[in-house]
Amino acid sequence: MQVIGLCRFSYPALSGFQVEHETLEAQRHYLYNPDRLNERFHLFETLTLPALRAQTDPEFDFVIVIGDCLPKDSLDRLQQLIADLPQARIMAHAPHEHRKLMQQILNEARNAPDQPCLQFRLDDDDAIAVDFVTRLRRAAQDCSTAFQGTQTAAIDFNNGYMLETRKTDFGAAQVCRPLISAGLGMYVAGGCDLSVMNFAHQRMARFMPVISYPDAPMWVRSLNGFNDSPKARKGNLKLTPFDQALRDVFTERFAVELDKVCPT
User: Fold this and answer.
1) Does 31 score more than 80 pLDDT?
2) Would you tell me how many other CB atoms lie within 10 Å of the CB of residue 180?
3) pTM (two decimals)
């Protein structure tokens, strides 16, 4: 079963942001602000990419969506970062209605639209566990009977880490949060043209069955200076300092070196 991941890297959509701007030009100015882009590149390189390279099941596709107006130096930098990740490809698009375009991109990425597939979404400042693809496929196999007759179903890995990356308060908190975007996969039946991007992730239980797996940490969501969600920046979490035990968990589960993500 094909597994497809989608990542929007500072794509200037006409909708889909919680931080809104009055004009498209204002949104571009915000997204391509050098401070924001530098932080995004840093997190993408040190947090997002390591686990993608280290997936225990390397058979997946990863589509990175950018704006066709992304500055050339940033495009060159992005291409260099994924040069050793054969599963990844960059797709540049003009600004468009968010969910409609993402649905189109995911459907075009399907090798066999008449066959079922698995999809996931990943922000450019988050991470998945190194066995995410393996476990996503295993979950679909385990639930194959339950998925018969349904067009879509959510596979929710609800155990993960919130990672504070701002220098004022480095630390992490292990949490259980249902339907968080970084830990969520979706089964899509053959012939169905819906995608994981058609639904607000926190509301997916309203539209399809949800299978939850709380047993192991499967994702990292970073709390940084430019989170799109205001709630993410206001979280009242009890953070664990970066002791050796936490460093070991991040290395084992996410192939991440915390001291590179959050250099002192």
Assistant:
1) yes
2) 21
3) 0.92
